[in-house]
Amino acid sequence: MSMRELVVLGTASQAPTRQRNHNGYVLRWDDEVILFDPGEGSQRQLLHTTVTATDLTRICVTHFHGDHCLGLPGTIQRLSLDRVAHPVAVHFPSGGAEYFARLRYATSFYETAELRVEPIEADGQRIALRCGTLEARRLRHPIETYGYRLVEPDGHRMLPEKLAAYGIAGPAVGELIRVGHLDLDGRRVTRAEVSVPRPGQRFAFVMDTGLCDGVYALAEHADLLVIESTFLESEAALAAEVGHLTAAQAARVATESGVRRLVLTHFSQRYPDPRRFHDEARAHFDGDLIIAEDLTTVQLPPRRVASAG
Ligand SMILES: [Zn+2]
């Protein structure tokens, strides 16, 4: 089984605190290791985890406020310092290309790493990966912001005992998966006879935003949703005004979208006690609920069981 997990580097919005670094998240998903929103200090936070800069295959930035991108200079320079041999793709809102260019070349350094710069130009833009599709959706924030989701297509899990019963082995298995059936001595064996559906997994990353269609589009049926909850309901009016979510709103999105494991993060420093986020969200969401802490790891939940029929 390949590794699919979220490594949390930092969880503070706006300014770091003694307990929380600026934002930063790494998603390990098969052959992809994606760094999301590296805030200030992300390079050093990586040192406290099992992820190295050399592991990174892709960087996704939601928007160009400092708590989501001030870690780019250090991280990008580190890729060259470590002589990363593979190209690293970078996605960010195209309207922020000038900010990206400045951050990328913030100081002098000897550039050896290859960045594959692929800005997000439009709502709904999709990037095909080996392990699924990365999709960007426009969010509601004072500057151009995109959230991301990674969607693995539904597939099939072949049943070895059924394959063996029909004497199907080797390249014939691949042909059966590809074509959907196999003709054996005048009898047709269909894929459905020797497999069960394997629902694809989904990861969503929603940050920073007020409630909007993009939030729901990203969260839909996510196995793991990482979503900002900067504020509590006591500051709901302020949250709406500045384009942020409350813990209750984020939790209701998760419930309405069929999310399985919910990770709340991007906390305002005005709330020293994280239990308040938990208690507020718990009243609106009864699935797996995690109030993110720096330098913790969150596994993707086990694959959904396919519904009958
Ligand atoms: Zn932010």
UniProtKB/TrEMBL annotation:
Secretion signal, residue range per the UniProt entry: none
One MF term in the entry's GO annotations: zinc ion binding
Lineage top rank: taxon: Bacteria
Enzyme Commission numbers on file: 3.1.26.11
Ligand binding (Zn(2+) 2): 67-68, 208, 266
Record note on cofactor: Binds 2 Zn(2+) ions.
Record keywords: Endonuclease, Hydrolase, Metal-binding, Nuclease, tRNA processing, Zinc
Catalytic activity: Endonucleolytic cleavage of RNA, removing extra 3' nucleotides from tRNA precursor, generating 3' termini of tRNAs. A 3'-hydroxy group is left at the tRNA terminus and a 5'-phosphoryl group is left at the trailer molecule
Domain Metallo-beta-lactamase: 20-106, 195-267
CDD domains for the chain: RNaseZ_ZiPD-like_MBL-fold (cd07717)
SUPFAM superfamilies linked: Metallo-hydrolase/oxidoreductase
Cofactor(s), by name: Zn(2+)
Residues binding Zn(2+) 1: 63, 65, 141, 208
Top EC class, one word: hydrolase
Pfam families: Lactamase_B, Lactamase_B_2
Active site (record annotation): 67
InterPro entries: Metallo-B-lactamas, RibonucZ/Hydroxyglut_hydro, RNase_Z/BN
Record's function text: Zinc phosphodiesterase, which displays some tRNA 3'-processing endonuclease activity. Probably involved in tRNA maturation, by removing a 3'-trailer from precursor tRNA.
Family indicated by similarity: Belongs to the RNase Z family.
Quaternary structure and interacting proteins, as annotated: Homodimer.
Protein name, entry field: Ribonuclease Z
Provenance organism: Micromonospora saelicesensis
